[in-house]
Amino acid sequence: MHAPAPVLSLRDYTQSRGSHAHDYFQVLLGLDGVLDVEVEGRGRGIATGEAHVVAPGDRHDFEARRGGSVCLVLDTPHAPWARCIEQAPTDAPRLHALARYLAHCLQQPQHAALALQHGPALLLEAWGAAPSVADTRRRRIDWPALAAWAQANWHRPLNVADLAEVACLSPSQFAQRCREEQGHSAMLWLRTLRLAHARELRLEGLSVAETARRTGYRSPSALTAALRR
Questions:
Q1: Which domains does the chain have, with CATH numbers?
Q2: Keywords assigned by UniProt (predicted)?
């Protein structure tokens, strides 16, 4: 099973037993009930407010206790989650509050797109895993500020070099950092952001033509095709 980009979802587990392995990290955040998970022979229960990271390749069995279990689940190839496997969240209540907020957003059509876009990075930050020495020496990218800049510049074609210039990095450095910190390529990050903005405008009642104009799609039909995909 493969996750090419971070995927955030809300899952309702039952007492039916499941078992699988995948080539990406799986972050489980308990919202209700208890989910029993056995990873490579090591068992634990994930109760409300608790969290656990399953490493790529680790086979795990799972089964909810009586009454079922609801978890916010992040499937991600993002390498920094490796630090969270052995390190408990530094502020579990804060992480749990964020998980509940993201779960609520996922159930609201007008907020789901932004939760999917920014949730994975916010969860990693909230976990509080200590960065490596190499990470502390690198220029920090303010992703929300960069997203706001991109939204203000939809009227012109944007590429990796434009984003890198705003972030004060070379295009190759920015492309690598985007893959590491956002889990996918810079252009996919940009396209996802633009589509999320377009969805918001359409939910606010803007016409297809006006939404396409504001978000830089070459035509209303191009926007419609992107939304259908």
A1: 1-132 (2.60.120.10), 138-229 (1.10.10.60)
A2: DNA-binding, Transcription, Transcription regulation
